Amino acid sequence: MDKVKAFLKKKDIEISLKRYGIDALGAMAQGLFCSLLIGTIINTIGSQFHIGFLTTTIATIAGANYTVGGLATAMSGPAMAVAIGYALHCPPLVLFSLISVGFASNALGGAGGPLAVLFVAIIASEVGKAVSKETKVDILVTPLITIGIGVALSAWWAPALGKAAMEVGTIIMWATELQPFWMGIFVSVVVGIALTLPISSAAICAALSLTGLAGGAAVAGCCAQMVGFAVMSFKENKWGGLVSQGIGTSMLQMGNIVKNPRIWIAPILTSAITGPIATCLFKLQMNGAAVSSGMGTCGLVGQIGVYTGWVKDVASGAKSGITGFDWLGLIMISFILPAVITPIFNMLARKLGWVKDGDMKLD
């Protein structure tokens, strides 16, 4: 056992919730952002502003036509796998081999591909690290083992993992359509909490393909956390804190939450209010990329995703046009309601002595 532990330590193989559930999951979301999400944004900009270069087919592969954004989107599997490998500290040969693994697992996983990529890439990475530099023909053995294991697991697991993720996502979206009030609260609160925790709400939403009304509730929960913390901690953190939390991430408050969990009450209660308002009153839907559902106001990706969904729905005929009420709902849910409601709850918490000056100060 001691030899095994020593070997794992030498290879930097750490079997832990933090390494796989936080580091790898968070990196996967960044890979999605740099491929699927950016590709979607590029396509939307091209179509909305009639930019020929962005809407013209620049490559045809196996009969499929690709624009600039389309090529970026097509690389989401490799991007996720390489990002996961980077987070797991893979050596170069393993990292580069993950390109093939990511493509295979994402393609075979279907709409639930991101979840398949997460599981398969983690195992392929760790196996690749274990064999890396153990032979004199490392340049052959390491890629062969990494790709072989990755593709084999993709063929074996990815379809089932993808289907399972889709089923869970479908159930959540179905339940939200059926019970928009209660599910609006549930999805908004849970995804909002995930956004502030050191895990990736964006990756979770992507893995579950969370769109539609449920996606709208997820956006509401994320915005409640980000804008809520940014506004109610303005006294301590000023404009820098407003920007870093409001369009960056509320995860910056995690250290303060550990010290005083009660500072989290106001954003969570706000998300429980804005979630059902989004689903029941404004019928806010996220029909853009599912990863956008878990981004909130981070780089305004959540709002761009909602707008992208509107454009897609109008083009398909599912929506007659983008109305003023649509814009009102997006602005209210994303910015105004969190900025107004969260400080009110925080003020009550202060009066009860639960929150004090300096509790939300960022270092």
Strand and helix layout:
Layout: H1 2-10, H2 17-48, H3 52-55, E1 59-61, E2 64-66, H4 68-74, H5 76-87, H6 92-109, H7 113-131, H8 138-178, H9 180-196, H10 201-207, H11 212-232, H12 234-246, H13 254-259, H14 265-281, H15 301-316, H16 324-351
Antiparallel strand pairs: 1-2
Helix pairs in contact: 2-4, 2-5, 2-10, 2-15, 5-6, 5-7, 6-7, 6-8, 7-8, 7-10, 8-9, 8-11, 9-10, 9-11, 9-14, 11-12, 11-14, 11-16, 14-16
Distinctive features:
363 residues; 2 strands; mainly alpha
Description of the structure:
- This protein is mainly alpha-helical and 363 residues long.
- The chain folds into 2 domains: 7-163, no CATH class; 179-351, no CATH class.
- It is 74% helix and 2% strand.
- It is built from 16 helices and 2 strands.
- It has a two-stranded antiparallel ribbon with strand order 1-2.
- The mean pLDDT is 92.
Number of helix segments? 16
Query: What is the radius of gyration computed over CA atoms, rounded to a whole number of angstroms?
Result: 22 Å
Number of domains: 2
Rounded mean pLDDT score? 92
Give the neighbour order of strands across the main sheet.
1-2
Q: Could you give the order of the helices and strands?
A: HHHEEHHHHHHHHHHHHH
The parts where pLDDT drops under 50 for at least 5 residues are none
Number of strands: 2
Largest sheet: 2 strands, antiparallel
Task: Kindly name the structural category.
Answer: mainly alpha
Strand residues, percent: under 5%
Distance between the termini: 42 Å
Helix residue percentage: over 70%
> What would you call the shape?
globular
Short structural description:
This protein is mainly alpha-helical and 363 residues long. It has helices at residues 2-10, 17-48, 52-55, 68-74, 76-87, 92-109, 113-131, 138-178, 180-196, 201-207, 212-232, 234-246, 254-259, 265-281, 301-316, 324-351; strands at 59-61, 64-66.
